[in-house]
Amino acid sequence: MTFYPLQFEPILKERIWGGTKLKSYLNKPITSEITGESWEISTVENDVSIVANGEFKGKSLNELIAEFPAEILGTKVYQAFGKQFPLLFKYLDAREDLSIQLHPNDELAQKRHNSFGKTEMWYVMQADADARLIVGFKEKSTPEEFIKHLENKTLLDILDSKKVKPGDVFMLNTGTIHALGAGILIAEIQQTSDITYRVYDFDRVDANGNTRDLHIDLALEALNYNKVEAQHFYEKKENVSNEVINCQYFTTHFIPLNGNFKVNKNNDSFTVYMCVEGRFELVYNGKTHAYQKGDTVLIPASLTDFQLSGQASILEIYIS
Hints:
mainly beta, seven-stranded antiparallel sheet, six-stranded antiparallel sheet, 40% strand, globular
């Protein structure tokens, strides 16, 4: 069997806070003016990615992993996770502020939902003037203070807000209270989980006049009440894999590609490339595969020697 770089049909999600940047900036085939998310690679139940290119076109990612677990996932990943794909890759367009929320850790998520926890990373691709996001508390808080501000609708007074620009990276460990602000387009890398505890939604209603559910009781035990330093700063040397995040769930590098870059890796893990700016080509086994901003590609672990070329900014993600 000859493996090759895999792309998938985007799984598009309407959201009350979504917009149209997934089409205007990333060329996604959205048909709604409130499209908030494009799930690029997913094995979340009922949202499993389908291959869009090559010999495996039409097969699901789960089907491929079931048939070729070590070749797709990598020997080390297969040993650690079995036939589960452990990460979820998305692009998000926030036309309006997202709800203020947090995610449980592995232990709580397993106990309550039979799921992985949801550690995630944001890479800011585009931001309108003065766009901001919320991440953590301004100072260490307590459950009592948190509840008091929720009841008084003054929660924003104790949350840390940061102005953002393209290239900014935020690491959201489980338990960190956060919200993506209006006017921001991001690439998101996270554990395979769809568990979110929403604690405040600005009293919004949908088209039918309904508010969205809140999960305050579940959130109280899951919250990290400490002040956190979520923003990560990193080098941007051309034609080098610059480390951005290295955590137990995933490793992310930033590649400012200007010309050619040879990749030689082992078969421990799959690799995912998210093109966050520009265009590039990947040459493997004598064949050339072309990508542009907004494309996401899964490199099966069995592909260990290939070349990237072009002018692009690329996120490189794998499990170490």
